[in-house]
Fold these 2 entries.
Entry 1:
Amino acid sequence: MKTNAYAAQTATTPLAPFDLQRRDLGLHDVAIEILYCGVCHSDLHTVRGEWGGTAYPCVPGHEIVGRAISVGAQVQKFQVGDTVGVGCLVDSCRTCVNCEEDLEQFCDNTVFTYNSPDKHTNGITYGGYSERIVVDEAFVLKVPPNLDLAATAPLLCAGITTYSPMHYHNVTTGQKVGVVGLGGLGHMGVKIAKALGAHVVVFTTSSHKVADAIRLGADEVVNSKNADEMQKQLKSFDFILDTVSAQHDINAYLLLLKRDGNLTQVGVPPEPLSLNVGSLVFGRRSLSGSLIGGIKETQEMLDFCGQHHITADIELIPIQKINEAYDRLVKNDVKYRFVIDMASLKAG
Ligand code: NAP
Ligand code: ZN
Ligand code: ZN
């Protein structure tokens, strides 16, 4: 299936039109017409080679919402016409201990939606900045019928990446939860923590985001550059989610945790962060990481968002504006997720 897409040919060239081939429909596959695709900061890190290991041409995009246009003969969960989602994963080994525990994101042979070896084409996987995608039904999600489709796309990465660690660390009613960085992940983190009943505090470096943070559901907003404001929050948090995409001081946040509190890092700055071990030792605090979520938990998150009417705050863009959107993402100029309207790819 010839498919129009946008790709980067090198780490320093802009994304531009690119033709790719999608595989023929297998027995268990769903062919999806992509309607909307969110723009994650991981797309940018990968396209620009900031983490190393990018194969080019690179077609990013792992926040996909679309419509099933054909289904393989043995597909059971989906029918033509269904509204479906695809997130960061499109396959895994399905037999290892991680897969058996519904944690496919940690499988040694997990296949990410883009920039992973693709056994079907002997090339690499190409993501959602494209007209169509073919995915095994085991990795296709059902989209709640009551949510706006474009604003649902970011749930497939930003939603699950913030939902999963909050669940794992038992965030619940009455706890004090911090969210560091009010970008795509951060603003979803605020909405989800609020829906779980937490008292939510946003830490931002951008003074112009204060009013938005409150509108999004935060109970308090701290300017993280202001030492006095930070001081007032010492030793008071049960859990902090750090979504920052660039170099920053995590020790300042560890000191804000109560005894036994946890800070989970989901942002992946390209450079190492420095750790003052004393901030962990005093207070038996812990520092963890978390990677997206498995397929079962992603479906749970989508259903939770359906029940709580949670979607992302988005700026819908035509694909022709993608390079501008990347530049704005680096400057923290996004409210709060760009989503590509894939109709623009057909038009142009
Ligand atoms: P984003 O929309 O660009 O948001 C990042 C936020 O970090 C910014 O809005 C900004 O918030 C803050 N920030 C940026 N530069 C900063 C700096 N120099 N110092 C302090 N704060 C800064 O990005 P995103 O899409 O949410 O992604 C965030 C990170 O998570 C990326 O590294 C991405 O690769 C990673 N990620 C990880 C996973 C996972 O599974 N672990 C999944 C998806 C994404 P303020 O303006 O409020 O300060
Ligand atoms: Zn992502
Ligand atoms: Zn596995």
Entry 2:
Amino acid sequence: MKLLEGKTAIITGASRGIGKAVAIEFAKQGANVAFTDLFYNEAAQETEKEIASYGVKAKGYASDASNFADTDKVVAEIVKEFGAIDILVNNAGITKDTLLMRMTEDQWDMVINVNLKSVFNFTKAVQRTMLKQRSGSIINMSSVVGVSGNAGQSNYSASKAGIIGFTKSVAKELGSRGIRSNAIAPGFIITEMTGQLPEDVVKEWAGKIPLKRGGTPEEIAKTCVYLGCDLSSYVTGQTLHVCGGMNV
Ligand code: NAD
């Protein structure tokens, strides 16, 4: 039996990387998938095709997750097109890494808006539909550095720590209505985001990880399947570290 048969999911920032892997894993498990990214470009069209190849409904939408009005509009379109929202994966995220001494106001605001405000925007926009359904699973992509902090990532760590506080509050507010809210804290995952790092930095990171390697987007996607489906029906308000033991 497929774990997400008949469910509808929204995944933000899913043209590539972890978001794309989540979209494909969800499709393999029978979910219909609506996904967003900044542009409906070639990468988004390719992702849409790949999702649809598993025989589910798939549609990509251009939308800036950090923009409140844009988010409200796209969620209304998705509800009209798909009829329900069972799972929301708040995945869109960026980095603007630099030491605090050099960090500009713009670098701070951009990271907070794309990584944290987007989670508020989408959760607020799907809330009414999930409340009506009296069910839903919200999955927020945090990071190990949201728990541990990291030099050169004060903006990013703050955004990811904020996500954890938000996740717990939503779990407490909406639990009585059958809506669950959890966060995932990935460690070092090999995607285009981390692909920009020099090889020696990657080697150093891997050396510190008990499992001695970076994770794959698919390994994060499988955790999303767990949190999205009924296997995790009594799990809410939690942060699952998927990091090869990096944060223990
Ligand atoms: P990525 O850069 O490969 O993909 C991020 C996607 O989000 C891109 O498609 C991008 O276009 C999209 N995006 C950016 N800004 C957006 C916006 N305003 N609105 C809509 N979409 C937007 O990154 P990734 O490595 O796949 O990371 C995905 C998530 O996982 C992020 O939230 C990231 O912080 C988190 N994460 C990644 C790692 C890692 O090691 N890769 C570790 C911990 C957490």
